[in-house]
Amino acid sequence: MTVTLPEPFLARMRQMLGGGYEAFVASYDQPRAYGLRLNTWKTDSNPAAAERLHGLFGLEPVPWCKTGYYYDEETKPGRHPYHAAGVYYIQEPSAMSAAELLSPQPGERVLDLAAAPGGKATQIADRMQGQGLLVANEIHPARAEILSENIERMGIRHAIVTSASPGELAERFPRYFDRIMVDAPCSGEGMFRKEPETVLEWSEQAVETCAVRQLAIMQEAVKMLKPGGTIAYSTCTFSVEENERVIGQITHLHPELSVERMERLWPHTHRGEGHFVAVLKHRGTYDTDESGDRPPFPSRPAKRGKQPSSGAAPRKAIESAMREFEAFAADMLRPTFRLTGGEAVLFGDQLYWMPTADGAMHPDMLRGIKTLRPGLHLGTIRKQRFVPSHALALALTESDVTRVHRMEADSPQTEAYLRGEALPSDGKGWTLVTVDGWPVGWGKASDGLLKNHYPKGLRRPN
Ligand code: SAM
User: Fold this and answer.
1) CA 94 – ligand 1 centroid, Å
2) CA–CA separation, 65 vs 298, rounded Å?
3) Largest CB tally within 10 Å, which of 70, 196, 267, 423?
4) Burial profile 312-326: b = 16 or more Cβ within 10 angstroms, e = fewer
């Protein structure tokens, strides 16, 4: 589909860009750029296979993101088994700029307020190196499911996935997060080349409606920022109303925020679809700033060897579930795999390892907040039996486990596994199934066959 740009949009861009306008319009006749971002803990754990990715997909570095690469569209990395193994995330290159500028650090408490499908959330998680707490939130339930799947696929251990409105979260987490990503819903002017049908939804009224909503979302985000903390506000749109004006309004309403950086990536000056990012910093510190509310759940030290009672299940049930997990772990997992920085929680028969941010997060804090994933899903407790989850498989490396069924990416076995078929095997018991060293799921071996435990919803059609 060729893009026919609305006249009022062109008039606005002409006014905004002046001399750059002709080059901007000409960029719509250029092919779009395709990008992926490497999942560094997976690539670092398997460097030889990771090295081959460059030739396989024709990777070229994205200048503003160390882990980002342009790929050759013909190579279709989204369909490769490595995608199912969470080795990379397909992401529009200019969108990679926002999490880079937010610069989350290991050990921090970070919120991604509008996180689906998960490009920025998975990038944030990667930068945090599995340490600290990431709350990835998406207001729309169906999109939150996709976000949750992507968090799982990338093998992220320290994320909680919620589906709440910004207001609901702000009530629960006042002055709580070190860093917040607000990748706001916008009029999507930067999507016109990538998804030409989005042009049909654009109008000047839509720009104005988005701007009002963006300011409202930012108002809630600010309430959740710790004094001294950082917010990155980003959009994939060009309008001043949705970008500089929102930043002007929010800093006017909150003089405690200063603008640290404001960047625009344009499709005619950068190889990407375009993005706006502003980084705002709260000037205060916890010591000096005494105004406003305190978090309703003050930080408390983590208690070793004792599970606090969960909002979801009594302590006894959690302890019994952990015994099942530990029996599984004694057989299947090596000491290199350690559950750290969290506590076990049980939702029904589902056992999770919740990141607790040094005691600042505990299960009661999620009461009443729709939570799709309260941490790393370890597995299901079924009649005193532990069934490991897909998320656990994706969060492991080959060296963490005692039994591995190894396959090669281009082998018919891999295709068969991803279709949900059983494979020949002379092993016994739970087995981690890997593709060129990267886990893709579980199998359970007995009587010469490896029963397929790749989730039904992810299986590829015949
Ligand atoms: N950050 C995501 C990523 O990198 O993959 C993309 C986020 S997208 C630009 C904006 C998201 O905001 C959408 O998933 C949309 O459902 C969500 N959204 C829509 N209305 C919202 C609202 N009122 N408050 C918060 N989020 C909203």
Assistant:
1) 17
2) 36
3) 267
4) bbeeebbeebbebbe
